[in-house]
Amino acid sequence: MRLLVLIITFLLLPSLASAGEILISSAAGMMEFIKEVGKEFERRTGKEVVFNFSSSGKIAKQIEAGAPTDLFISASKFWIDYLKRRGLIEKETAIPFASTELVVVAPKGSKLNSLLEAETVAVGNKFAPVGAYALESLKRLGLYEKLKSRLIYAPNVRQITLWVMSGNADAGIIYYSDFVKYRKKLKPLKVLPENSHSPIEFFAACTGSSLKECREFEEFLKELPDEVYEKYGFKKVK
Amino acid sequence: MSLSPEVLFSIKLSLKVSLLATLLIFLTGLPLAYLLAYREFKLKNFLDALITLPLVFPPVVTGYILLLIFGKKGLLGELLFKLFGFTVVFNWKGALLASFVAAFPIFVKGARASLEAVDRRLIEVSYTLGKGRIETFFRITFPLAKQGITASLILSFARALGEFGATLMVAGNIPMRTNTIPLEIYSAISEGDFGKANLLTALTALFSVAVIYAVNRLSGGRKV
Amino acid sequence: MIEVKVEKRLKDFKLKVSFSSRAPITAFFAPSGSGKSLTLQTIAGLIKPDKGRVEVNGKPFFDSERGIDLPPQKRKVGYLFQDYALFPHMTVFENVAYGARSRDKVYELLKTLKIEKLKDKYPSQISGGQKQRVALARALATEPEILLLDEPFSALDRSLKEELYGEIREVQEKFKVPVVLVTHDHEELFELAGWIVILEEGRSVQEGRPQELFFNPSSLKTAKLLGHRSFIEATVVEVGKSSLVKLPSGKLLRCRKGEFRPGDRVFVSILPNSLSLSLTDEVNRVKMVVRRVKKGMEIDKIFALFEGKEVELHLPSSLSPNFLFQEGRESTFYLSVEHLPLIRR
User: Fold this and answer.
1) Chains contacting A (3+ CB pairs below 8 angstroms)
2) Which residues of B touch C71 (CB under 8 A)?
3) CATH superfamily placement of domain B5-220
């Protein structure tokens, strides 16, 4: 019996944010970057960082449902505004801190030179930020009508990447930051012009719990050297 | 509420895919269930485990594996494409493949159990009465296991109809091309079109109730 | 005519059976779990022995040396399972017709076994006795070389059993088909069998005609199995038309003839029916103390102390008033020599 209590306590432990601990719920696309930053933060401050990775929309819904989160890192402004409207984040703490670009990729070793040669192009669907930006860009570049029938829609970056890596799609449009992760299996064709789509920015926002630690982490993000961002395919927002 | 072309298409596609998948499952699954139920052979347990995998794996993983095997550069996919100019990725055949693989173990497991439940001695009596394996199967074993086999078939049809994860991975979510009812519901919810989502959900629910009713009737029905 | 000599090793059981019978009805007699059904299955071809030979009516079914192993379909064996194993989804008619040569044959059998009226019923709608007739008809419809019956009467009540004994005999005579049946019931054994094979733990230990076997059991275990109840240790003194043995008390007792030599150590089996009415040449006169008398409808059972052991003796109830057996008193008994077989110990 005592053992059982011990085990349960042990299992519950990580979910109970204790003093000096910060719980970060982050968009999955930032996983590698935020993990490294988190570790560095722990090393510097001695405070513990706990992570939860998912899609931005899911996290926003979780926060709405009352899931404990101190810091929310979103891949789109939409979900920040969504929570703002519901009074679930501290307004002044919502800041864009990183940005990235869209890149057209093909499987490694592909002979493809341009997007127009591809028979199938994998993009995110309009509900996934990566898809919304890509469609916006294609439309502004006047490519959408030409490619419309060749587009294959995926719910997330992972799916697009998988289709392209496995050669089932001839090309795909993903974030540069995601391309960096899979660069061994992908060939970059072209970075889409930055002015062809709304800025792709990642936001941080504090929910109000452990506000001091949260702000501290935000400050830490702002002070990080540019190279750390670039290593993961992001640009620091000044 | 009018049925949009997408909704109509998804219903038609779903029925086509799941009915065809069920037919293929029946034709290939029954002999396999027979072998597993009555014959001893090497790798029997391995084969059993292999076909069970789709029950254990998350559908997305099943889809991923199918993509690796049947994708354009997959082991079999490349061969199929070279030989027949035939590919399953991003078209309705992918949905068929995903439904087939996901629903196959449900049928084989159920059919095997139904065959094993047939009194072994009835089969032996048939042999001593001069009947060979094939005639014994069609006149004794199959009729006696029929209820269970039909119930398994209906369940696997329901599974095929509800297949989502692997279908999304292999066939993609392409309106008017590969979006089956579950994919259409998924899109409708993402889009915030709850009217459409509700309609399709109600249709699915109605169908599920009918399936459960049918299965219960078959398995709880007259025991001969 | 049937000849079997097979060996089969199973997980935790070893079957080693050999016998040869020309009797119309042969019985395997043994307690449950001694491999009777297994032996039937090797004859039917449902189980393949590791080695040996099975031959029925001169036709080899199995011969490991010659590489013969006929599949069950080719053996023409009528096999009746213990609870008949009728096809539940077929009517009586369909069951019988399943392996039949012709429809005429089906009608003939339905008539012979008096089940014509049941022909459109399903097995779940008929009684145990009827099921057995149907199973019999179904087996006979293939005109089998041999009929194998696995404990055919175990599920039936007594009056029905006797009716069916008659039927089995009739069927046997009418269709001239040898029958092998498995039983652990004495009544069945002596009522039906012309040849008995005794199995013990998967081995055939003795075979022979019922009378012969009953009076010459090869071991104490077999004797008990056959229904012998009371045993007294003794030593053979003299052999001839009968055997003279010396009992532990030193008294001499004249017993049934057997293959023994003076000095052999034996058991005398005091058969319950060894009581004789008067003193003749073939009778021993002994004194025993009556311990208990159990009166019954047909027989009275007397339990008496003889040579320090309790022996059970049966007496027809109708004769009982002629004898004065009082509990606790010593009485004189006449024991028939022929009913005192000897068993080697």
Assistant:
1) B
2) 127
3) MetI-like (1.10.3720.10)
